[in-house]
Amino acid sequence: MITLEDFFRNSEQTGFQISPDGRHISYMAPYEERMNIFVRPVEGGEPLRLTAETERSVGGYMWADNERILFVKDTGGDENYQLYGVNIDGTGLRGYTDFPGVRTTIIDDLEDVAGQVLIGMNRRNPEVFDPYRLDLNTGELTQLAENPGNWQGWMTDHKGALRVVTAIVDGVNTQILYRDSEDEDFRPVLTTNFKETVSFMDFAPDDRMVYAATNLGRDKAELVLMDPSTCTEVEQLYAHERYDVDRICYSRKRRKLLYVSVIGHDRPIRHYFDPADEAQWQKIKNFFPGYRVAMADCDKAEERLLLYVGSDRTRGCYYYYDIHKDRPTKVAELAPWLTEDDMVPMHAVTYTSRDGLTIEAYLSLPKGVTLDSASQLPVVVNPHGGPWARDVWCFSSEVQFLCSRGYAVFQMNFRSSTGYGRKFLEAGYKQWGRAIQDDITDGVEWLIKRGIADPKRIAIYGGSFGGYAALAGVAFTPDLYACAVDYVGVSNLFTFMQTIPPYWKPLLDMLHEQVGDPEADHDMLAACSPALHADRIKAPLFIAQGANDPRVNKAESDQMVAALRERGVEVEYMVKDNEGHGFQNQENRFDFYRAMEKFLARHLGGACQA
Residue 147 and residue 145: Cα distance in Å, rounded? Predict the structure, then answer.
């Protein structure tokens, strides 16, 4: 049997990027059990470690120029990321925004402006972010605008000029503000209800028009060419009949739009605008038949690429590809200790909800079990977080681990999952614990009716909103599940909204529209808060929580545990004092999954009896 640690240990190397001049490759790798940044020449040679973080892994990084790398880190999972820089020879480590309690975001890397980046910080006011120009040589911060309190996002043109702002007005309306140049003031050009989408994705080559995803007057978000000064649609560029537009790829060197993609059920779907570009990419894909291939990074000349190659049965590999040599070279395998043949496939399936919606889902089965032979299996139902997110076809250490222990794993994109259009998204508004939960329940009933699931051995496990769904599952359908695992999940919708991060407060009215208003929808929120219905729960529970979680406060788990223990219901409770919304440190992940493995084995059976 593959050890638990092999599924959840840090990748051997991951997060590969290439320098703008294409001469160096950077990546993240373990040092003292934390992921740190390393760099080496493209041609090979001894790598140099640039960071020495031992408390928590580096949160993310990017190349600032050919000689310097920027990275972010937080403290104990509080998500107040601070920005640092270091030269690629290991010298010059410095903090740029090491302000306690302040969160830093990257607005634009200003690739064509030497020594500068645009960042956002909530330094002036914890609830709002202001844009700053950061001089990487001097550390000087120049505030570019003062956020009046409702500005939520920024967009630059190809020259790095700050041209677009998105804002929330009247609590629930989204507004786009625009200016032709930084010499002008921002002016509002379009106001819509937040349920309507007009999302500027990038400027067109002339810096006058923009590529935008919009669902105005339609259900699915489509890609259009738009005049940002009026938000008038100039040309429809791409639409998919089932899915929203997800992202675009723009070539800065060639100044052209390459492709648009949507997330399909079992694979990403790309639409190329130039047959020559499509042929070039197909030539690359032909080296890796049957695998998902994505461009992880490229140099500024767009001639030297880093490719990510993976599937549902491997954590993946990185390859270096020079378009002139037309020969991919393996750079690293993320988890060479996991053999692809030992992993199981992720089957894309569908079922119908009780009110007629088509729900796309994924079913993974224990090794040696096929869709045709699956019968009376113990099942772990695994709803995703969000709920405004989505499960996709990919490798999952959690799924593979659970399948290796004899469980089937069932994941579903219930209503409110993203990418399926406006109607599907809105069908889940104010439906936490109601229609969303019904979609999950309907999926479980589908498994039972097909004979795949043993109705006496079904667990529900999830994180964040998925943790809420796990609690709701055992509270509102108490006879359906044998046990549940709640990982940093919401338990009380009233206290959840009272303890959100300060920078979420401008979005509170919108949250009331999506989840429920504590006053106007008081009875509904009370009915849908598992902590207020602990008396209905009889299945054993395992709850895990990070003490520093800024999104789902520790009090959410505390009150659930207290209510259950008061009634004598079995509940295991794990709290990690150095974690936030999910466990990042490797030893904490080991502890969590080890406890979950024993918990599930005790209540479901499976390959591992603890």
Answer: 6
3-class state of residue 243 by DSSP:
coil
If you search the block for the tokens 């990275």, which residue do you land on? 71
The pTM score is 0.94
The DSSP code sequence of 293-340 is EEEEEE-TTS-EEEEEEEETTEEEEEEEEETTTT--EEEEES-TTS-G
Amino acid at 184: E
- Going by the DSSP 8-state scheme, the letter that residue 238 receives in this structure is E
Enter the tokens of residue 46.
């001894």
Q: Which residues pair with 94 in a beta bridge?
A: 85
Give the separation between CA 407 and CA 379, rounded to whole angstroms. 5
Alpha carbon distance 211, 223 (integer Å):
7
Q: What is the pLDDT of residues 206-226, one digit of tens each?
A: 999 999 999 999 999 999 999
Residue 432 within a domain: yes
- 30-49: per-residue pLDDT in tens? 999 999 999 999 988 899 99
Torsion sign, CA atoms 134, 140, 146, 150:
positive
Give how far the C-alpha of residue 546 lies from the chain's centroid of Cα atoms, to the nearest Å.
18
Helix (H, G, I), strand (E, B) or coil at 114: coil
The answer as to whether 610 is a domain residue is no
* CATH number reported for the structural domain that contains residue 382 in this entry: 3.40.50.1820
- Looking at the fold, whether 316 and 375 belong to one and the same domain comes out as no
Alpha carbon distance 381, 375 (integer Å): 16
Name the nearest CA neighbour of 314 among 342, 340, 288: 340
Q: Do residues 324 and 353 both lie within one domain?
A: no
Check if the beta carbon of residue 50 is closer than 8 Å to that of residue 90. yes
The predicted structure's pLDDT at residue 44:
84
Place of tokens 């997110």: 389
CA distance 16 to 589: 23
**Residues 124/125/130/133 CA torsion (nearest 10 deg):** 30
d(CA 14, CA 335): 9
Q: Among residues 306, 255, 253, which one has the least CA distance to residue 284?
A: 306
Clarify whether residues 310 and 443 are in a common domain: no
Q: Which amino acid, one-letter code, is at 169? A: V
What the block records as the tokens of 373 is 């032979």
Which of 277, 305, 333 is at the close of a domain?
Answer: 333
Per the structure, the count of domains in the chain is 2
Number of C-beta neighbours around residue 301 at 10 A? 11
**Which segments of 435-498 are extended strands (E)?**
453-463, 483-487
